[in-house]
Amino acid sequence: MDNVKKYKLGKCQKTGQDHARIWIENKRLSEVGFTPGSYYAPQWIQRGRGRSVKFWLLEDDDIIVERRKVSSKKGRPVIDLTGWEIKQFFDGFTHYTLKYEEGCVTVKGVNE
User: Fold this and answer.
1) Do 22 and 81 contact (CB within 8 A), yes or no?
2) With CB atoms counted within 10 Å of each terminal CB, which end of the chain scores lower, N or C?
3) The whole model's pTM is what?
4) Which DSSP string corresponds to 22-57?
């Protein structure tokens, strides 16, 4: 089964900037442990021209500097990243892929 899908980088909801939003909302998040109210930590990775960010699911007792919360929309888990951070990090990319593994979601910048 192919577990990598491609999505277009969206517009930032606040500023309207192109390629400044990553929205992940689907049952696959729950299947790999990202349930509403759970916490994750991003790991920003740059190798040459390649850019990706890994979201690592956290346990209740994990201590980490950058901790984010999985939100919910109609009971479905949502990871929503918008703004300058995304625009700057994924500069030069129009799309991203998602790869799901137990306790980890990888977002990789790609072009069409």
Assistant:
1) yes
2) N
3) 0.89
4) EEEESHHHHHTT--TT-EEEEEEEEETTEEEEEEEE
Q: Helix (H, G, I), strand (E, B), or coil: what is residue 89?
A: helix
Positive or negative, the Cα torsion across 86, 24, 93, 12?
negative
State the average pLDDT over residues 38-57.
Answer: 95
> What b/e string do you get for 33-72 counting C-beta neighbours within 10 Å, with b at 16 or more?
bbeeebbbebeeeeeeeebbbbbebbeeeeeeeeeeebee
Residue 15 CA to residue 83 CA, distance in Å, equals 7
